[in-house]
Amino acid sequence: MTTTPRKTVKDYIRTIADFPKEGILFRDVTTLFADAKGFRMAIDEMVQPWAGEPIDKVIGLEARGFILGGAIAHQLSKGFVPIRKKGKLPGATISQSYKLEYGEAIMEIHDDAIRPGERVLIVDDLLATGGTCQAGAQLVRRLGGEIVGCSFVVDLPELGGRTLLEAQGLDVNVLCAFDGE
User: Taking a C-beta distance cutoff of 8 angstroms, is the pair 120, 147 a contact?
Assistant: First the structure.
């Protein structure tokens, strides 16, 4: 009797060559999200390392982090807080700039989204250079929050994001990695 190998989260992620520009291999998680078993597997695996940890809120980084973060917050029965690009949140916010490959961007969070001492989990789909997550972590810390960890579906190790975040004392969990292949 032959058994079919069990699919992993990585098996659900497609690679699109030359997007958004020539020479880039884009790791597309929308195929993971579109498959009920794959999506459930990813959420379960992202929650598992933090089981038993006291967490007050789940932070989702724009934009695919909202999809993952909402599902994780639901599974943990915790609140969800979005960190968005500048100008997307109504009401009073604080902002943090960060560097992109070409230029700079600004992320924002509501100034009352995290209370001092609250423990948060930061979630996004992809860890590349770490700039977006680093900006999110700075916003959380400025509001007095404590970061339990950061959880990602995909890591691109050659871009150094994990090293950057861990050097800042952040606990990083990823489900799979793609080495520029």
Answer: yes
Active site residue 101: yes
Six-digit token string for 23: 């020479």
Known catalytic membership, residue 162 = no
Phi then psi dihedrals of residue 159, to 5 deg:
-90, -10
- Name the band, by pLDDT with cuts 50, 70 and 90, for residue 154: very high
Catalytic residue among 22, 53, 62, 101: 101
CB 86 within 8 A of CB 62: no
| Chain centroid offset of residue 153 CA | 7
Phi and psi based region of residue 40 (left: phi greater than 0; alpha: psi -120 to 50; beta: remaining): alpha
Catalytic residue among 64, 84, 118, 162: 64
Q: What number is the average pLDDT over the span 59-77?
A: 97
Q: What is the pLDDT of residue 181?
A: 56
Average pLDDT (12-40) is: 95
Is residue 38 within 8 Å of residue 12, measured between CB atoms? yes
- Identify the bridge partners of residue 124 per DSSP, sorted by sequence position: 152
Residue 175 pLDDT exceeds 60: yes
Q: Which residues contact 47 (CB under 8 A, 6 or more apart)?
A: 72, 75, 76
